[in-house]
Amino acid sequence: MTTRPLPEPTALTEGFWTAARQHRLVLQRCDECGRFRHYPQLLCPDCTSSSWTWTPASGRGVVYTYTRTHQPFHPAWTGRTPYVVATVELDEGVRMVSDLPPEDTDRVQIGSAVEVFFDDLPDTEVTLPRFRLVRAN
Fold first, then answer.
1. Using CA atoms, how far apart are residues 88 and 17, in angstroms rounded to an integer?
2. How many Å from the N-terminal Cα to the C-terminal Cα in the chain?
3. What is the C-alpha separation between 25 and 29, in angstroms, rounded?
C-alpha cells in the first residue's frame, strides 16, 4: 500500500497540526483587526500586523466548490476513485480544501453544509482535519 502525501509542519504551521492531533480545528486570527486567515501566514493580509493567535474554529461551513476526480493524482488514491475534493468556506469566512469521505461522493452539491472530522492516519503522528456532509437529523 502506498502512503498518501503527508504534511510537513513548519514553525509557522506547527500550532495548526498540534491542534489537529488533539481533534481541534484552529485558525490564525489577527490580534489587531480580528481577521481569520488560512493558510497560515506571517502577516495579516488586511492590516499587515505580525501579531496573531491560534483561535478555535467552529468546524462548520459549506461547500464553496468541488471536483469529482476519476483519475488518482497519486498512487495512494488508486482504488478510491471517484473521489471528491472540495473547497469549504468555514463560518469564519476562510476557505480550506478537503477530500470528502466516499459516502459523500454522489451527494455533494455547492452549498452543502459540512462539518470537520479528524482523520488519525495509521502508523504516523499525523491527524488531518477533513470535512464531511452534515447528516440530516
1. 18
2. 36
3. 13
* pLDDT attached to residue 3: 78
In the DSSP assignment, the letter for residue 3 is P
Q: For 12, phi and psi rounded to 5 degrees?
A: -75, -35
pTM over 0.85: yes
Give me the amino acid identity at 36: F
∠ CA 97-7-33 to the nearest 5 degrees?
Answer: 60
Give 76-125 pLDDT, tens digit per residue: 888 889 999 999 999 999 999 999 999 999 999 999 999 999 999 988 89
- Coil/strand/helix, residue 60: strand
Report the C-alpha gap between 16 and 119 in whole angstroms. 14
Q: Which three cell numbers stand for residue 137?
A: 437529523
* CATH 2.40.50.840 location in the chain: 58-137
* CATH 2.60.40.2380, domain 58-137, yes or no: no
